[in-house]
């Protein structure tokens, strides 16, 4: 995993974990990698992964079974999707709109390219769409 300097590492790892949850690679109630295992895989300090897991637990995306490990919450995928959607709509979409306006790209072209993207990369969504 390549880390960038614009965001705290634990939040970037939270994004990594959330991505796997959304894609269904780590389904609800499944055990996720231990702190040590994920730290080794990502080559980071275990304390950083622990901070990530504590953050995701506070967001109710994962839960801890004491002595056993961390698991994806039953509604973890929905929580991740809701949180990411809210962030996208409030932060990333306005930036996208500013960019396409600046570049003179019309919405029909965006629509056409989005439809082509969907055709090129059909990916089943594992949770209900809102």
What report would you give on this structure?
Helices cover 59% and strands 6% of the residues. The chain is mainly alpha-helical. It has a single domain (1-130), classed as Winged helix-like DNA-binding domain superfamily/Winged helix DNA-binding domain (Arc Repressor Mutant, subunit A, Orthogonal Bundle), CATH 1.10.10.10. The chain is elongated. The two termini are 30 Å apart.
Briefly summarize what is shown.
This protein is mainly α and 130 residues long. It has five helices and two strands. The radius of gyration is 17 Å and the shape is elongated.
Descriptors for this entry?
single chain; 130 residues; mainly alpha; Arc Repressor Mutant, subunit A; two-stranded antiparallel ribbon; 2 strands; 59% helix
